[in-house]
Amino acid sequence: MTSSHAQADNPGSPLQRLIETAIAARENAVAPYSRFRVGAALETTTGEMIGGCNIENATYGLTVCAERVALFRAIAQGQRHFRRIVIVAETEEPTPPCGACRQVLWEFGGDLEVILAHPLTRQVSAVHRLSQLLPCAFDSRFLTAKAEEK
User: Does the annotation mark 67 as catalytic?
Assistant: First the structure.
């Protein structure tokens, strides 16, 4: 683990509640093709917790990951400032967000804390900063620089 404050030992702690939110969201996953159910919970800077689950589509390309569902729900509710995200999947190894989710999380959340947990043990498996998972991220800085040249 890369962060000491990400322990979820206290059942009533904000982190444990965030893990529980991700686990509850995972229960709603629609994964008839892969059977790979994922839950995510995003915490705003004001402490609100918004869950999301993966939703598959027969074309696969239109499938949406749990992380993006949580983020898009939060944005639709008017949230714009985020502290951290918890991702849960029933896998032996901690399951980090895919590349597309990393990019979208960076765009809207910046260098979030990314906490990976297991839904059965309810324990934190790994903690990262998004900048560790997405080094040399592309964002609006590059677009702004190009626009200023004109």
Answer: yes
